[in-house]
């Protein structure tokens, strides 16, 4: 399976803006506080609004695939994420082949059943109505991968905390998610899968690991309350419970 970059123009580097009229890589992400929504033309969404609006989308996909220009703006936002030693250890495999989407959806469905069957009865009942994916409905999957060897053996900033390479790839996912939200495009992170299965499905070379399958597509709406709260699985924590002063165990 080829990567999206095989038949598309090269994405602009993190230091170069592309603003030519009609260029699918042209993007408003150079203005980090405001992003123009392609569907609405003049509508805009600030970064804090995108953070508040962002949801892990499952059931709200319209079934219409995201258009190429919007997809490339979103991938451009992901590619501008900060990375340790400027290593940019991520790649993006864009999957739209219906047979591949169905194959992954079936694999995920099997894991959903296994997870449900392992739950205590009361938790299983809570879990039953919760959707965990919109793989086929979204029409587009983005497999985000991580190459821990990228940047060579001496990646600046990674010597004592090697996990910063993987953290960098996750930052690219966050950029993608917020940019998609600002565009009115939903994203759903699927994690009910066996990594070797996804690596084979996406044709990943040895040493390249899958970090996420992201369902990406237009939505009817963003839920105002996250699904896991709406269905009673788990409530969110107040910010005050997460903020510590000076030391973790000191008074808040």
Secondary-structure blueprint:
Elements: E1 34-36, E2 44-46, H1 47-53, H2 68-79, E3 90-95, H3 98-117, H4 121-127, H5 135-138, E4 141-147, H6 164-182, E5 185-190, H7 195-201, E6 208-218, H8 227-230, H9 239-242
Antiparallel strand pairs: 1-2, 3-4, 4-6, 5-6
Helix pairs in contact: 1-6, 2-6
Short description:
The protein is α+β, with helices and mostly antiparallel strands and 252 residues long.
Q: Could you characterize the architecture of this molecule?
A:
- The protein is of the alpha+beta class.
- Helices cover 33% and strands 14% of the residues.
- It is built from nine helices and six strands; from the N terminus they run ββααβαααβαβαβαα.
- It has helices spanning 47-53, 68-79, 98-117, 121-127, 135-138, 164-182, 195-201, 227-230, 239-242; strands at 34-36, 44-46, 90-95, 141-147, 185-190, 208-218.
- The chain has a four-stranded antiparallel beta sheet with strand order 3-4-6-5, sandwiched between helices. Strands 1-2 form a two-stranded antiparallel ribbon.
- Strand 1 (34-36) and strand 2 form a beta hairpin.
- Helix 2 (68-79) runs antiparallel to helix 6.
């Amino acid at each position: 399976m080829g990567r999206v970059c095989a038949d598309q123009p090269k994405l602009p580097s993190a230091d170069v803006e592309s603003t030519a009229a009609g260029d699918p890589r042209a993007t408003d992400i150079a203005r980090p506080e405001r992003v123009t929504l392609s569907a609405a033309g003049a509508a805009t969404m600030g970064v804090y609004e995108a953070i508040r609006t962002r949801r892990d989308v499952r059931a709200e996909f319209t079934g219409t695939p995201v258009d190429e220009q919007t997809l490339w703006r979103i991938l451009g936002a992901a590619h501008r994420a900060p990375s340790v030693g400027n290593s940019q250890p991520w790649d993006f495999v864009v999957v739209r082949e219906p047979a591949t989407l169905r194959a992954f959806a079936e694999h995920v469905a099997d894991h959903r059943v296994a997870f449900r069957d392992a739950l205590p009865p009361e938790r299983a009942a809570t879990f039953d109505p919760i959707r965990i994916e919109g793989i086929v409905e979204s029409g587009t999957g983005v497999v985000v991968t991580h190459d821990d060897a990228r940047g060579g053996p001496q990646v600046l900033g990674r010597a004592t905390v090697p996990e910063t390479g993987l953290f960098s790839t996750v930052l690219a996912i966050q950029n993608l998610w917020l940019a998609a939200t600002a565009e009115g495009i939903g994203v759903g992170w699927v994690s009910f899968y066996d990594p070797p299965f996804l690596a084979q499905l996406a044709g990943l070379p040895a040493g390249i690991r899958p970090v996420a399958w992201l369902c990406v597509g237009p939505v009817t709406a963003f839920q105002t309350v996250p699904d896991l709260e709406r269905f009673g699985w788990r409530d969110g924590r107040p910010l005050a419970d997460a903020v510590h002063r000076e030391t973790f165990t000191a008074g808040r």
